[in-house]
Every structure is written in C-alpha cells, then in structure tokens.
Amino acid sequence: MDLTNITTVKRILQEYQTVAQKRLGQHFLINAEILDHIVTAAKLTSADEVLEIGPGFGTLTRALAQKAHRVVAVEKDIAMVKACRGINADLTNIKVVEDNALALAEEFFRQNFPKKHYKVVANLPYYLTSAIIRFFLNSPHRPDMMVLMVQKEVAERIVATPPDANLLSVAVQFYGKPEIITLVPKQNFWPMPKVDSAVIRITPHKKAPADIDDHKFFRLVKAGFGERRKQIHNSLAGGLRLEPALIQKILSKSGIEPTRRAQTLNLTEWIKLYKNIEKL
C-alpha cells in the first residue's frame, strides 16, 4: 500500500470515516522521496528506538520501522490511532499510543524507553513546533536527536545566528545544534498547506554550555527580546525591572555595548550577562 498516494489517502479517510483535521494541522506527505530524506537525516541503525509524534496513517512510521529497532508513535486523534494500528498491523516493531505528546508522563518514558536513549522523528503540526521542541529539549528524558518537519520560516528562525538571532534560536541553540537538512515545498502535502516546510535536525549538546538555572536564564533572554527594536539596555531595564544605571554597569562588565540589540548577542554573551546579573 502506497501511503504517499493521494487516492489511497482519500480512500483510507473514507474507510475510517474521518477527515484531515485542520485544527490538528493534519497534512499528509505525498512524496516518498521526502520520506527518504527524513529517515536518512535521523541516521538510524538497527539498534535505535524512535519516538514519532503525530504518525497519521503511518506513512513515516513504516519508513522508520524499516531502519530502526522499534518505533513508538504517539497520536492524539483517536480516529488516526485506529487507522494507524489497522494499516500497520503487519509490522511487529511499531507501537501506536493514544496520547498528547506535550503531556507525556514519566511512566511513558520508563515503559517505552527504559534504556533512556531514543530519537524523536516527526512531521509536526506547525502550531506545535516550538512547544514540542521546548518540551523535549528541556526534559529530563532528552532525546539523542530530533529530526522534524516544520514550517520553513520556523526552521530559518531556529538556525538563525547574530545579527538575526531570536528567542527561539537562542533557546534551541542553548540545548543543541540545529541544521536545516532540506526544504520541502507545500505541493508535497495533501491537503496542501499555505506555506513551505523544511526538515531540520537538532543534535542536543552532550554537555550544557554552562551550569546555570534554565528558568532564570530564559527569563533574562525573554526580557532582552521583549522589545526587539529597543537597545539592549532599555529592554533589559524594562523587562527585568532593574535600574537603568545598574543595567549599564552589568553590560559594561559583560563587555556588551548598551546600544546593541538583543538579536546581535551570541550565546556566550547571554551566558556572561546572566552570570553577572546573578552576582547582584
């Protein structure tokens, strides 16, 4: 069965009495070549365990199962859960779980990935991208790798560096190294979305870039990006509610010109700034 064939997709939807849910961002991949790009990007071996988010009918799931030891697919839509289980009943190394990927409990990881090593591979609904990345990179069960299909614009934001950095790029690059693998025009999906996509790979750092409090660090970064058009001394003074003179002193100590803007700071500078604020 070719799950990248539009006629097949429509027939399955009819058979399982469901439709592509816009509110869940369901767009079915209809190009087998893109599947190869995703699987190749994940660098799978026969020992790898994969967590897939939003498998739909199992188009990507089947491709992953051919290379990996096991695939655990988490699907929120009960109609898709039934379809994915039925269509892929012939594969013994696939497990389809009805659950919300943003609310996976400790027990889920204990049961499904007891060795604590797994890779996340997914064709993500656009509206979930940032939340999914944050959830897994900031999790005590951090994956060894994430390979994701995301909106092209979001992919470009994730890999951005100074002078075009942003809150999302700093957040992702604090935890790992992101890279765009390939661009995917919108014509490769049905129903066709309004925007193009991209496949990205995020490889988490083996060691955090600094021994700091994540929550406090990102409070600082959010304050810096709170008003992008403002110079860094103004955005930090307002966002952190600290005296302007004190902010000027901290910036000087950190070797950062107060007239710069948040998007020009690199990760090393953010960490240095955080450490000097913590000394107050």
Task: Write a short abstract of this structure.
With 280 residues, the chain is α/β, with parallel strands linked by helices.
Provide the low-confidence segments as ranges. none
Total E-strand runs:
9
List the total number of helices.
Answer: 12
What percent of residues adopt helix (DSSP H or I)?
Answer: 40-55%
Could you tell me the radius of gyration in angstroms?
Answer: 21 Å
Look at the helices and sheets and give the structural class: alpha/beta
Distance between the termini: 64 Å
- Approximately what portion of the residues adopt beta-strand conformation? 15-25%
Number of domains: 2
Order of helices and strands: HEHEHEHEHEHEHHEEEHHHH
Q: Describe the sheet with the most strands.
A: 7 strands, mixed
Describe the overall structure:
This protein is α/β, with parallel strands linked by helices. It is 40% helix and 18% strand. It has twelve helices and nine strands. A seven-stranded mixed sheet has the order 4-3-2-5-6-9-7, with helices on both faces. It has a two-stranded antiparallel sheet with strand order 1-8. It is found in: Cytoplasm. It comes from candidate division Kazan bacterium GW2011_GWA1_44_22. It catalyses: adenosine(1518)/adenosine(1519) in 16S rRNA + 4 S-adenosyl-L-methionine = N(6)-dimethyladenosine(1518)/N(6)-dimethyladenosine(1519) in 16S rRNA + 4 S-adenosyl-L-homocysteine + 4 H(+). Specifically dimethylates two adjacent adenosines (A1518 and A1519) in the loop of a conserved hairpin near the 3'-end of 16S rRNA in the 30S particle. May play a critical role in biogenesis of 30S subunits.
